[in-house]
Amino acid sequence: MNKTKKMNVADIYGKFGIFIILIGTIIISAIISPAFLSVNNLTNVIRQNVTIGIVACGAQLVLLCGDVDLSAGSVAAFAGCLAAMVQVAVGNPVIALLTGIIIGGLIGFFNGAVITGCNIPSFIMTLATQQAARGAILTITKAKPISNLEGFTWFGQGYIGPVPVPILIWIIVLLITGFILNKMRFGRYIYAVGGNKVAAQASGIKVKRIITKCFTFAGLMSGLGGVVLMARVNSGQPNGGEQLEFDAITAVIIGGTSMSGGVGNIYGTIAGALFVGFLINIMTLLNVSAYFQQIVKGAIIALAVIIDVKVRNKSSK
């Protein structure tokens, strides 16, 4: 009987915890700053944090496998800046967009192939990629921003009717990610691999292939996120995307995805991304320093992981 109750606690946390936190954050933010609930503010908050939401979708697949990708921010800057350079060279925003996405996907595939082929811990490999990608784009651009991106900015600033284009892009990414996790065999394999790699391998699942595909998807999302980011700020910023991977991982973890893998859903990631965006916004409205904001986000990650470990330990007893 006790075990059943403890399992129910775990289920409640996994399904509803982040939504309760999100609603509480919105209420508190509205009390602290009446401007928070204005349509313009909420639209701007979501649009400004679309990049986090896009990258979080890729980060979720990797985390569901029990791995982690620390290279997302640098890959976003690398792919986004190269996309901006292509835009300047050929003047075609579609080609520039595809360039950024493909470059991100190739880097993600490289990460996954090396991790699975050489049995390297994912945080080590992606940390190396993080440093290499950032150094490479700073070298290529000589640390100077890329301007004259006419047409390219539509991906970050444009509208289709009343809906901002970046928000529409995020919605499409969410639908794709949700379809993968809920409707495809690939999604079921991801959960199986994250739950128990040995058992998944024994059941015939090609574990290394699944992990590589997840890292490839994460790279594609980093590339797309980088394009949207550079388009929104109207320049290719080689220093852009700093701390992006941590914001994305924060969104996924507080959304209920376990660091151990095998547990999580896209709805929690949506709520987690919105929570991170709203939290950053309210701290900005209150003139909280950027340095203290990093402390808050770090504390949130630690707290979310502690809760996850406690809940999983209780549910296993």
Strand and helix map with partners:
Layout: H1 2-32, H2 39-48, H3 50-64, H4 72-90, H5 93-118, H6 122-141, H7 154-157, E1 159-160, E2 163-164, H8 165-183, H9 185-195, H10 197-202, H11 207-233, H12 244-254, H13 266-285, H14 290-315
Antiparallel strand pairs: 1-2
Helix pairs in contact: 1-13, 1-14, 2-13, 3-8, 3-11, 3-12, 3-13, 4-5, 4-6, 4-11, 5-6, 5-11, 8-9, 9-11, 12-13, 12-14
Helix content: over 70%
Instruction: Bin the strand percentage.
Output: under 5%
Please work out how many helical segments DSSP would assign: 14
Instruction: State the separation between the terminal residues, measured CA to CA.
Output: 12 Å
The number of E-state strands comes to: 2
Decide which structural class fits the backbone. Answer: mainly alpha
If you average the pLDDT, what whole number results? Answer: 89
Compressed to H and E, one letter per element, the order equals HHHHHHHEEHHHHHHH
How would you characterize the overall build of this protein?
The chain has 317 residues and is mainly α. 77% of the residues lie in helices and 1% in strands. Strands 1-2 form a two-stranded antiparallel sheet. The radius of gyration is 19 Å and the shape is globular. The model is unreliable at 1-6 (pLDDT under 50). The chain starts with a helix and ends with a helix. Helix 1 (2-32) packs parallel to helix 13.
Essential attributes:
317 residues; 1% strand; disordered N terminus
Gist?
It is built from 14 helices and two strands.
